[in-house]
Design brief:
With 96 residues, the chain is of the alpha+beta class. The protein has one domain: RelE-like (YaeB-like fold). The two termini are 23 Å apart.
C-alpha cells in the first residue's frame, strides 16, 4: 500500500478550483491510488507523473516507488493545466 500525502498548494487549489459536487469523486479516486497508482490516471510525460480527470478538471500526482509514496501535488481546470504542470515539474526538479 502506498502512503498518500497532499501538498498545501494542492489543498488550496483543490478548494478554489474543483466544484464541490466533484470534490468527493476526486477524494474517492485519490484514496484508490493507495492500492495501485499506475492503474489510475493518465501519465504526463513521465510514468511517475499522472493526472486524474473529471468534467474538465484535473488532479495531478507524483508516484515515488522507492518511498512507496504518492504526492498529490496540484489541481486545475483545463485552462490552467499547462501552468500547473510546469509548476509541479519545476518544484519536483528543485527537490531532486
Amino acid at each position: 500500500m502506498y502512503r498518500i500525502y497532499e501538498t498545501t498548494t494542492f489543498a488550496r487549489e483543490f478548494r478554489k478550483t474543483i466544484p464541490l459536487p466533484l470534490q468527493e469523486d476526486f477524494r474517492r479516486r485519490i484514496r484508490s491510488l493507495a492500492v495501485d497508482p499506475y492503474a489510475h490516471g493518465k501519465p504526463l510525460r513521465y510514468a511517475w507523473f499522472r493526472e486524474l480527470k473529471a468534467k474538465g478538471f484535473r488532479v495531478y500526482y507524483l508516484i515515488e516507488d522507492t518511498a512507496v509514496t504518492i504526492i498529490i501535488a496540484g489541481a486545475s481546470d483545463k485552462k490552467g493545466q499547462n501552468a500547473t504542470i510546469a509548476r509541479i515539474l519545476s518544484e519536483y526538479r528543485r527537490k531532486h
